[in-house]
């Protein structure tokens, strides 16, 4: 097709996470993960054991229906599918010396289906799925021992699947650790919160583990490409005040440090200043410093919202849905869950990351969570989700603009390409997919799959390599 800025070979597809789709939490030798005791998502207290009201225990039953789902992805024309491997399927407790063969065999079958349909796998090694045993026994990533457990896990995956998987991501949204310690780092949260010293030490441990995985991949699977994955969020000054601009810089630094370490191999000066001013001394060995020099091949990221920042305490009323801080931007509308919608922000992030890191970029999460209504049209059950089409169209147009700017973008995987259990709220009513799954927040439903209107729209976008987008 002509009249499209998307290059030949641009990877179009979708993304999911094991804990939000697979279900089968106690099948195939799987152990418990932190997600199995988070029935209400990020903000609510954890439970002691899995409870029936945790929708993630069944998810959308992808564990048993993966072939059906992958066939639907192929029908849309996916060239790539991002999914995660559940750590506790491979090492049920996390600290074993030998992996669980049933878990490895399951992902072999998933890869078989992807290969049958010509879909490139993009695998996340750890997507908010720390084994529960590592959280309860070791304190999660606050404990240096987790580096070795993760290293063994990563080595196992590269040895088993390295010849079949080209693209790997080490940790999902690694910069969320300070904001969601239990979900992101398997860190039990005591009354009063986790001390900053422990949080920053856990951050360091994850960064070292990520770098070690990158090194191992180059040893075991030299053809593989390893990327980091960060939560991106453009930040605007609430006013033209220089103080607000400085507040933006400080907030930006808090997010960008993760990508800086992954792409440059050392901690930047502004971060070392932050540690000094907080009175934090990280335990960093010479081996750690050497490990961090194993930088990534590309940078991947999620993009859902932007925020504003201000230095004025009187204006710091946090906007609903700004889960990473900041204040609401009065110029933007928001989704039903309060996430501010900003397509232009995606172009800004792409340019910022490319200018800063000069590494190929991969948009591996972007989408609109909404309450969809299943209806019948011409005798077929579907969802007329014009609102989702408009959201995705406007964001993809901005990706095209970034490509015109000269940014190197490898591909785009829409988040929750099939309806999944929300990570932030643990609801199924917060739907992202092109495919409707008949399951409700109370656990009822047939689990049948139905193509939404956006299903055909996205198929046209892929088929035309972006030429069908409305500019």
Automatic annotation (TrEMBL):
> EC class of this enzyme?
hydrolase
Q: GO:BP terms for this protein?
A: carbohydrate catabolic process
Alphabetical keyword list? Glycosidase, Hydrolase
Gene Ontology MF term list:
6-phospho-beta-glucosidase activity
InterPro entries from the entry?
GH, GH_1_N_CS, Glyco_hydro_1, Glyco_hydro_1_AS
The active-site annotation reads 365 (nucleophile)
**Does this entry carry the keyword Hydrolase?**
yes
Q: Which SUPFAM superfamilies match?
A: (Trans)glycosidases
* Signal sequence interval, chain numbering: none
| Keyword Hydrolase among record annotations | yes
Q: Which PROSITE patterns match?
A: GLYCOSYL_HYDROL_F1_1, GLYCOSYL_HYDROL_F1_2
Q: Spell out where the chain crosses the membrane.
A: none
E.C. no: 3.2.1.86
Where is it found, in Gene Ontology cellular component terms? cytosol
Task: State the family named in the UniProt similarity comment for this chain.
Answer: Belongs to the glycosyl hydrolase 1 family.
Q: Which PANTHER family match?
A: 6-PHOSPHO-BETA-GLUCOSIDASE ASCB-RELATED, GLYCOSYL HYDROLASE
Listed name of the protein: 6-phospho-beta-glucosidase
Native species of this protein?
A: Microbacterium proteolyticum
């Amino acid at each position: 097709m002509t009249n499209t800025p998307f290059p030949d070979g641009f990877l179009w597809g979708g993304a999911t996470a094991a804990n939000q789709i697979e279900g089968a939490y106690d099948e195939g030798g799987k152990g418990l993960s932190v997600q199995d005791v988070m029935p209400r998502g990020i903000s609510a207290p954890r439970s002691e054991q899995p409870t029936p009201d945790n929708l993630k225990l069944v998810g959308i039953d992808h564990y048993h229906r993966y072939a059906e789902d992958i066939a639907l992805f192929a029908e849309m024309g996916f060239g790539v599918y991002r999914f995660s491997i559940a750590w506790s399927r491979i090492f049920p407790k996390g600290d074993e010396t030998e992996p669980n063969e049933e878990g490895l065999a399951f992902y072999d079958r998933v890869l078989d289906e992807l290969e049958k349909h010509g879909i490139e796998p993009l695998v996340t090694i750890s997507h908010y799925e720390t084994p529960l045993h590592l959280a309860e026994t070791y304190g999660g990533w606050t404990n240096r021992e987790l580096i070795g457990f993760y290293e063994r896990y990563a080595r196992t995956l590269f040895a088993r699947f390295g010849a079949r998987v080209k693209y790997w991501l080490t940790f999902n949204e690694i910069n969320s650790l300070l904001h969601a310690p239990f979900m992101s780092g398997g860190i039990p949260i005591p009354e009063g919160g986790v001390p900053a010293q422990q949080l920053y030490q856990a951050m360091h441990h994850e960064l070292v583990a990520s770098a070690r995985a990158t090194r191992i991949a180059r040893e075991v699977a030299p053809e593989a490409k390893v990327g980091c994955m960060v939560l991106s969020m453009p930040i605007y000054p609430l006013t033209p005040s220089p103080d607000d601009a400085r507040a933006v810089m400080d907030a930006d630094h808090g997010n960008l440090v993760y990508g800086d370490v992954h792409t440059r191999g050392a901690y930047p000066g502004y971060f070392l200043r932050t540690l000094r001013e907080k009175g934090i001394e990280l335990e960093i060995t010479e081996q750690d410093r050497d490990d961090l020099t194993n930088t990534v091949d590309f940078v991947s990221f999620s993009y859902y919202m932007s925020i504003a920042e201000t230095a004025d305490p009187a204006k710091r009323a946090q906007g609903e849905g700004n889960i990473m801080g900041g204040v609401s931007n009065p110029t933007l509308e928001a989704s039903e869950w309060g996430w501010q919608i900003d397509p232009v922000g995606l172009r800004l992030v792409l340019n910022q990351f490319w200018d800063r890191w000069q590494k190929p970029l991969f948009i591996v999460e972007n989408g609109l969570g909404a309450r969809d209504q299943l209806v019948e049209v011409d005798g077929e059950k579907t969802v007329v989700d014009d609102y989702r089409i408009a959201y995705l169209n406007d964001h993809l147009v901005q990706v095209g603009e970034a490509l015109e700017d000269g940014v190197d973008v490898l591909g785009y995987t829409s988040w929750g390409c099939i309806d999944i259990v929300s990570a932030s709220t643990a609801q199924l009513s917060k739907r992202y997919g092109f495919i409707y799954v008949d399951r409700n927040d109370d656990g009822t439903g047939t689990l049948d799959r139905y193509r939404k209107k956006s299903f055909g729209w996205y198929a046209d976008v892929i088929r035309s390599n972006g030429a069908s987008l409305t500019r």
